[in-house]
Predict the structure.
Amino acid sequence: MERSLLASNYLSSRQVTTRKRAFGRPAALAIPALVLLLLVTVLPLTWLFAISVLDPVPGFGNYVDLLSRAGFQRAFLRTLKMAAIVTAVTLVFGYPYAYAMTIAGRKTWLLLTLLVLLPLWTSLMARSFAWVILLSDNGVINNGLDALGLGRLPLIRTEIGVTIGMAQLLLPFMVLPLYNSMIGVDRRLVLAAQSLGASRLTALRSVYLPLTLPGIVGGATIVFIMSLGFYVTPMLLGSPREAMIAPYIGVQVNRLLAFNMAGAGSFILAFAVGIILVFTARFLNSGNMIGGYSGETGGASARRLPWSLRLHCTVVGFILFLPVPVVILLAFAGRPSFEFPPSEYSLRYFVHFFTDTVWSGSLRNSLLIGVCSAALATVVGSAAAYGLTRSGSRWCQAIYAILLTPIVLPGIVGAVAAYVFFLRLNLSETFVGLVLAHSVLGLPFVLITVSSVLKTFDRRLEMAAASLGASVPETIRTVTLPLILPGVITGMVFAFVTSFDEIVYTLFLQGPDTRTLPVQMYLSVTAEVDPTIAAASTVVVLVTTVLFCSTYLLRRSR
Amino acid sequence: MTSAHHGARVDLSKLTKRFLGEQAAVHDVNLAIGAGCFMTFLGPSGSGKTTTLNMIAGFIQPTEGSVRIDGQEVSGLPPNKRQLGMVFQQYALFPHLTVFENVAYPLRRRRISEELVRRQVGETLKRVHLEGLAVKYPSQLSGGQQQRVAVARAIVYQPPVLLMDEPLGALDRKLREELQLELSRLHRDVGSTFIYVTHDQEEALALSDRIAVFRDGRIEQVGTPQDLYADPACLFVARFLGESNIILGRRDADAFVSRHKQAFAIEPAPSAMENESALLIRPESMRISGDGKLAVESSLSATVTDIVYLGASRKIILKASVGGDDLIVRETSGQYSDIRRGGEVLVGWNRRDAKLIRAT
Ligand SMILES: Nc1ncnc2c1ncn2[C@@H]1O[C@H](COP(=O)(O)OP(=O)(O)OP(=O)(O)O)[C@@H](O)[C@H]1O
Ligand SMILES: [Mg+2]
């Protein structure tokens, strides 16, 4: 009886004799992602470039004009200088820190990893706000110095303030590549050098340092490039008279409506980034940038760290962790003031946050845009990752790299281009426009996490499913998807948090009806003394922490 | 599931596969596999066995030629429409599904009622002795158990053709022999056509109805295990199946003259045989004598270099006095107890036990 049942199935399938193989061209699955990138990044950049060389007259007049302006020159040089300082600071603080991670025991390793990743999952705006409080003229640091009889220092609205603010945000991007290159080094080489007569320090300098050079160059490149495009931090912590290039470009767009000049400035910045990448691209790989997120390899040795390293890590960890208790304490303030620690405590600012239409509206917008853009990025990005890892074509490497460009494109350049282009399409200030832009920013994370699980995925499982009678969609639904789900979910969480925390694109693309939480926080910091922002920060930190912890637990349970 | 059903016949004609920019991995393979036959593809690594199997399964499109199942061309069909079963080398069990769900997978794809699924899976698991393990996950099973699950999953829907790519390759020797017996029994019970890939000659001889010997993407010879062992078409097949004594040389009228100018008597051979050829004598047909007297038609003198004890038999390894070729003699019933290592002996064979074969 079963025989006849199976046989009828068997026979009916035989009527299909000459059909093209259903596996088709998997690379086609990358098309939606490319279309998205085209719409949000490629076309806008092209459009912006066209404006910069065509308006008002064809040629490179705008570039010559801009480069000859003293204000632009100063901003450009200051940006280069700040980027160099921030890179140096993160390297000096990050190198021993990363080294400590490689020799720490399991528990210490976990703590160090969590601390260094803290800036990635505690909102940019929350941290920036905390540093405004810490560095202000009547802030914790200055009060402390004053109490010690050392007098007050100008910190906020100086380059010191900007350096501190940027360095602590960028530290993970230095430490992760360093750590990845360090765990690849055979530590016995250092011992060998010592046995050959080198002192410990000489051995480290002459053997370890050169071997970790790829990590140093990789980390320095990422940090330098990201520093060039910083927009919000310099505006909050820096002096308006000492503008950096990104705020300079922003002013061209927002205040002067000089899109041609903004375009020229953007492409000068992008050109600088491009030149750096040409020389250092071979030291970069996507694993360097977020590989550490999923790394669970550390903590092999059980040695105690030497006291010097422990001191160093404690100081760095303290600086990284400091903003969290500051915003949480401030959130419970009882009076409309940023005094720290607060003299009275209450829940009134949480109540205000959830009941005030402006604040709760912005939270709702953020959640909605976050969910929609994460969903879009996940679907489109997973499909692209699947297609690109499955296709044997040489082009796939290139397409993959192109889809990752939103990571290296300075935020201000992409934001200005998207703004100018979306204005033409009547997409600016709209919900759709923000979702599209945010999903492109989340796309690289989905691509990276999903591709990495697909690479370790045993393809014979799909062949087995096919031989057992599953069609291609059935195979994907019953075998591929359940097995790569942890990667997909991780990618989706990253995409959501990216959107939830996004500020640069959003500042340009938002409108009165589409104001997001980070934008509202930004406006609040710059405009008023209202501890509601601390309550908002606390809620944001809580949301992302819960999300990341549950993702981690989900991966662990598999 | 008590009644055996019939397998499908599989015909390969002019099957060729060239991977992009490579030499042909499979070249002009023609093979008729009878319904219900246990056919083994045997050959060294890289000889095209897996590629051929994958063309039958539909994972690889042939560059030329056709695959027909029960006379029906299947080239246009994707793997899931070919109604084949396949057992993969490292089993390819679905790690996120239990044993039961793994075995039920092909039935579910065929939209069979849940009750029937439960019954079929239960019967199949019993057949491979896994009744108690239905709720376990593959990672909780031993290698042999995983292998049984893979087989159960491939036979549960009684495919007319079952393909197996080195299914026992990852197991230790004892387990392999045990599972070989089970596979033989399963083949008789199920009645499907089995196509089995291996590079283990003993396995091929033990299991198969017919063996196709692959070499560099071509089929060198097809036949029953007895045919191939007793009457290999060429040196390659002779060396690949069982142990052999090979004497290189050329045919000269009714005799065979070795490279070292020794002449041996041979049976009359077809005159089409090329001049360059070889004489093959299986070790169990060789005779030795320590006292210079040997009642055989061909003989030569040699020194005993080694005696290997194999349990039920002994293997005596010799070096020919002229030319220094290695020779092997298999002693099966203790008849050469007087032979010692280092001894000078006479070694020989009867004319009918010496096969003249192609030397290429
Ligand atoms: N996808 C591929 N692309 C290019 N060449 C391939 C591909 N698959 C197999 N080949 C080549 O085809 C030839 C035959 O390979 P095949 O896998 O069929 O050998 P095999 O007989 O199964 O060997 P083994 O016993 O090692 O499994 C080899 O030379 C191999 O390098
Ligand atoms: Mg193979």
